Amino acid sequence: GIFDLRFMSYDLKFKNAQVGIYNVLGEKVYSIANLQPLTSNVIDLSSQPAGIYHLQILTDGETVHGRVVLE
To answer: What's the CA gap between 49 and 10, in Å, rounded?
Structure first.
């Protein structure tokens, strides 16, 4: 579980974005704040067990949801 999260747009709504990753029980297992557009953000979930995780990205006025699958 190590991956790179990158916003490929310099849209200002992505400035200072916050990312939270949650397990199936809704417990936050990872968070990072103040992400910047067009930069590399390495996320290490290697200490977490295999499974499906919920990804939540909070930007200025918008929330984006996704899934992360650890095998």
So the answer is: 34
> 3-state DSSP helix/strand/coil percent for the chain, to nearest 5?
5, 55, 40
- Each residue's pLDDT tens digit in the chain (71 positions)? 888 887 776 665 667 789 999 999 999 999 999 887 778 888 999 999 999 999 999 988 789 899 999 99
Query: How many Å apart are CA 53 and CA 36, to the nearest integer?
Result: 23
User: Whole-structure pTM over 0.85, yes or no?
Assistant: no
The 51-59 sheet, strands edge to edge: 28-35, 17-22, 51-59, 62-70
Q: Which residues pair with 63 in a beta bridge?
A: 58
Residue (of 46, 60, 12) closest to 21 by Cα position: 46
